[in-house]
What does this fold into?
Amino acid sequence: MFSCDKDSDTTPPVIDLKNPVEGAVLEIGDEHGIYFEMELSDNEMLSSYKIEIHNNFDAHGHSHSKAASETAPFFFQKSWDISGQRNASIHHYEIVIPEDATPGKYHLLVYCTDAAGNETNIARNIILEKNRNNPG
Ligand SMILES: [Zn+2]
It folds into this structure.
C-alpha cells in the first residue's frame, strides 16, 4: 500500500450486483461459466474489483474479515483492474465452477476499491449444484 493524502475522498464505491442474485443456484461443471453482472460507481474514480467464492458449509454468517479458504472444496478469487473509470458496467462469464467442486452452500463476495483506497464489499449466499440433466 502507498499513502496518498492529496485528496480526501473517503466515499467508498457503490456496488450494484445484479447477477447472481441472493440464493442463486449455480451449476457445477458448466464450461460456459456463470453469468456475472453488476454496476460499479464512485464519486471520484474506481480502481479495481475482486470476486471471491468460498464455501459456507459451516454457516459462518458474514462479518468475517478473513477468507475461509485453504480447505475449501471450491475456492475462486480473481481481481480486475477498472482504473480510470467513474462508472463501470461489468458483465462476463469468467467464473467457471469445475466438475470436481463439492455441491453445497457458498458465499460470493464482491470487493470494490476506489482510487483513494476506499473499499466496499457485499456478500451473497449462493448454492452450487450438479446438473442432473447432463450426465456427460
Ligand atoms: Zn463467507
In short: Residues 54, 56, 60, 62, 64, 107 surround zinc ion (CB under 6 Å). The longest strand covers residues 119-130. Strands lie at 14-19, 24-28, 34-41, 46-55, 76-81, 87-95, 104-114, 119-130. Residues 68-72 have pLDDT under 50 and may be disordered.
